[in-house]
User: What shape does this take?
Amino acid sequence: MPELPEVETTRRSIAPHLVGAQIAAVHLGKPLRWPLGCAPEHLVGRCVREVNRRGKYLLIELDAGVLMLHLGMSGSLQLAAQLAPRSTHDHFDLLTSHGTLRLHDPRRFGAVVYVDTLQEPRARKLLDHLGVEPLQAGFEPAGFHRALQHRRSSIKQVLLAGDIVVGVGNIYACEALFMAGIHPSALAHALTRQQVKRLHASIVTVLQRAIDVGGSTLRNFSNAQGQSGHFQQEVMVYARAGQPCRVCQTPIQTLRQGQRSSFFCPRCQRG
DNA sequence: AGATGTCCCTGGAAGC
DNA sequence: TGCTTCCAGGGACATC
Assistant: This one.
């Protein structure tokens, strides 16, 4: 499912082609998570200035207004000069002078939201509560440790909540905790400075590595040229229940936290 | 403010 | 073989 590395991989693959493009038409399929927020015709004639990212939101900044895209858990974007006719799960087509950008999303947890500015309430509701970007300077061990001090729930749930640090979904949360040797049930506020330092480094390493290899293809992710990522070949614990830990051979275990599966090695993650 | 549970959706896997 | 049930999960929202 698309987490930060997949969204960033997508951003990088579409941005060079999309910047400068003029919108010719917008076609909508079935309703996505939220309504677009403007009439499709309203967008025609506008030009793409930049393609940015905040957390898991892609921000297509136009000469007037912004399209906020979220890939949910099954969404992917394609960009090509000529695309096949729309099929059942193609729910948003942005036809431009530089090709068509298409959102394919079988489960429709994704969204495309138009706002005039990122300061308006509809945008702020989605972006304001987001934590720091893990691959930018604002994410550092001391601040991370401070933020974790007043969180009573498990570190895994705090990571997924995304209000301290964004972009770490279930796969990368499991992987980062494994790399740091921390049990997913460990209480966030009880982590030592040393543990937080390791976790901080692990998050950065895991996300950066995933971007470097083009994201994960778990749950059918592919970039905008339809290429798959390779991160899933390096997964240490995610979706490996019962299989031997790649470090110590102990069988990987699972547990449920907040309706979500965690995968961990009971021997490597005792912290 | 923080924690917890519910809901949205549908393809694929598992169970009968 | 064909049905039903379960599961995957991001994140807004309601509730405590």
